[in-house]
Amino acid sequence: MSATMDAVMPGAAGAHNATAAAAAGRRGGGIVAGMMAFPEVQTVELLVAVSIFVAIHSLRQRRSQGLPSWPLVGMLPSLLLGLRGDMYEWLTGVLASRGGTFTFHGPWLTNLHCVVTSDPRNLEHMLKTKFGSFPKGPYFRDTVRDLLGDGIFGADDEVWRRQRKAASLEFHSAEFRALTASSLVELVHRRLLRVLGDAEEAGDAVDLQDVLLRLTFDNVCMIAFGVDPGCLRPGLPEIPFAKAFEDATEATIVRFVTPTAVWRAMRALGVGHERVLQRSLAGVDRFAYDVIRQRKEEVAGGGGGRSDLLTIFTKMRDADTGAAAYSDKFLRDICVNFILAGRDTSSVALAWFFWLLNKNPAVEAKILEEIDDIVAARRSSPPAPAAAANGADEDDLVFHPEEVKKMEYLHAALSEALRLYPSVPVDHKEVVEDEVFPDGTVLKKGTKVIYAMYTMGRMESIWGEDCREYKPERWLRDGRFMGESAYKFTAFNGGPRLCLGKDFAYYQMKFAAASILRRYHVRVVDGHPVAPKMALTMYMKHGLKVKLTKRDKSKL
């Protein structure tokens, strides 16, 4: 019947089919029109899908690379998060999770790519075995050049060797040792103890880090320039040169976390931290060149009997021409470099040392016991010839160099403070040819390498499960101090660049610490925040506010 109907009415069937097709076409057209009417919906969905894929892929890389690595910006987001908190603890966590070494991928087309390590094997390879393959490098040199110039800390090759040789001879001379010892006695007993005494009598809190920085700044300026800036005078005056030096140092460190093209553009425009740096450097240079001019006039007039570094380098002559061996600019660079090292290393270490003593009273008690034994031994033996000259009576006891040398436990306590809070928390090298670290890390020519001394003091693989505990005993064998490998304890660097002033730094720290502890109990103010500051050296971000209490005078 239906077949007959179809045969009888073919037009009707065709019309029906046409109507259905038209309806379908309208529906399809409606969908297309709808999609074309809302193209942003598809775009958003596509972007969301791509973003989720990129995020998952980047986050998965944390397992293989230590940090998420994002397109274009690399690991920069993680670095920025780390900078918001304790940068050094953040870095320690990353290195611990990666076995001591990881590669940081910076943003695309920047110079923030580097290998970061805390493996002692890698440090020995870099600082000693393949020393020539790991110079400071052009990146570090260019970044610090405005402040440090061609001085020893940024220099490489012959420029570095020349300064190192001359400075090494001077550091080991009898005249230089006498200058350092006499200037330290003057500063500690005529200034430091008086400033602390005034604060104790007034019952005032004092920023011990600031006081110690003033002590070491005055001391190193005497040694480097042969001048006394007077930072540690009563009232703690602000000294223009010291302020300019501090500001210049802080502005320079910002460059290390800023893409080179950016800070160079800022320097050209004179804006931001580069403006601060330019203004501060003008103050540093004004002071330095005035002293250099005066010293050259003094030497030319036959009055160069001083033993400071500036005088020694000013007297040097070229073997062929007989002219001055160094330009004024080079003399400025030499002295500024040694001031940077000499000011910060000891003072920053001492600040962390006193903070650690506040948390570990048993260690303080053992140091006092050692000091009391040394003083008792002095009383039972004939007085030293220089005792009267040094004011070695009961009210103004001055420790002799041979007594400072016997302070083994104090030496260990200071070393333990430096292990946990090294004055230079990280340092930088750049490889000049393809290399492979002992741990298997491949280094291509031009790779920047950061070695993290702060992290090394917190690695169980290096110091054991108690690595975060403050234990001077780990440095003692039968009561005698025993040092560690420079590639395990790198507070004073290692290899050919081992710190020239290491012995003096220990002497300075021991002398100042013993002189303070024998007279005062140092207590950190309750609630005072203590955290490291991101800088070339490990300052305390908020200083170290302390209150002093006199010890029993019968023991002095």
Automatic annotation (TrEMBL):
GO MF annotations in UniProt: heme binding; iron ion binding; monooxygenase activity; oxidoreductase activity, acting on paired donors, with incorporation or reduction of molecular oxygen
TM annotation in the entry: none
Keyword Metal-binding: yes
Cellular component per GO, a single term: membrane
Positions bound to heme: C499
Location (main, coarse): membrane
Topology relative to the membrane: Single-pass membrane protein
Cofactor: heme
Compartments it resides in: Membrane
Family statement drawn from the similarity comment of this UniProt entry: Belongs to the cytochrome P450 family.
Protein name: Cytochrome P450
